[in-house]
Amino acid sequence: MKLRALDLFCGAGGATRGLQMAGFYVTGVDIHPQPRYCGDAFFQGDALQFPLEGFDFVWASPPCQAYSAAAYNERARGKRYPDLIAPTRDRLAAHPYSCIENVPGSPLKTTLVLDGWMFPQLRVVRRRLFELTFFILAPRSQPPKNLIAQGYSCVVGGGRCSGAPVASNAWHTQAAKQKAMGIDWMHRRELSQAVPPAYARFIGEHATQAICAARKERAS
Asked: Rounded to the nearest 5°, which phi and psi values hold at 117?
């Protein structure tokens, strides 16, 4: 029987796809309709009210706009965004296997940092922080030189990556952003909010090992 994962604030399912690749049956929850959600089950509703019982692993990606560099100008003009990391942490406190994901600058108790250059199949510059209830070592420690020259790009809203070649906007197309992220089913705005599936697969595989090891120990 497959382990069951819950993806809170799931969006169109970037983290969900990675957890599926790690072997989980994944249920997504989001306050907004997600017609392109890729998971096994979806519920529209408040992620902080959804029951956690019956799930082996819980992933949560609360909104990042309160901390992200991409939303800095809007915040400077007085726009306010929800700050849901503390409520999410409180909600997950009783669950033994969980992950909270967010952007640099967010108030996570960071235990892992991932970026696109750590995964050979990706060509995206997308640093993300993770607060985990179990230990993981990052897959690589040193980024390659000249990321942009090697074809890496940022996938942030509709903007062009700082430092990207001006002579060509080929990478700026939706198809190029999908390829950079390892995602082929999302539209541009969904891509701008998504977690690359490779990140969630990496974490999900380690979560599976931790869960199975704990079950084996209890059974012995």
From this structure: -70, -10
Give the sheet arrangement for strand 112-114, strand by strand. 41-44, 25-30, 4-8, 57-60, 98-102, 128-132, 112-114
Pairing of strands 57-60, 98-102: parallel
State the pLDDT at residue 59. Answer: 98
Residue 184 burial by CB count (10 A; 0-12/13-18/19+): exposed, middle or buried?
Answer: exposed
Dihedral sign for Cα atoms in the order 79, 107, 85, 110: positive
Amino acid at position 140, single letter: R
pLDDT at 206 over 80: yes
Three-state DSSP state, 214: helix
How far is CA 152 from each of CA 8, 72, 116, rounded to the nearest angstrom?
29, 23, 8
Estimate to the nearest angstrom the gap between the alpha carbon of 155 and the chain centroid: 13
Contacts of 194 (CB under 8 A, 6+ apart): 11, 12, 13, 14, 15, 155, 181, 183, 186
The answer to whether the CB of 22 falls within 8 A of the CB of 72 is no
Half-sphere exposure of 194 (CA within 13 A, CB side): 33
Task: For residue 211, count CB atoms less than 10 angstroms from its CB and return exposed for 0-12, middle for 13-18, buried for 19 or more.
Answer: middle
> Residues for the chain: how many in total?
220
Q: Does the predicted TM-score (pTM) go above 0.85?
A: yes
What structural domains and CATH numbers belong to the chain?
4-140+197-219 (3.40.50.150)
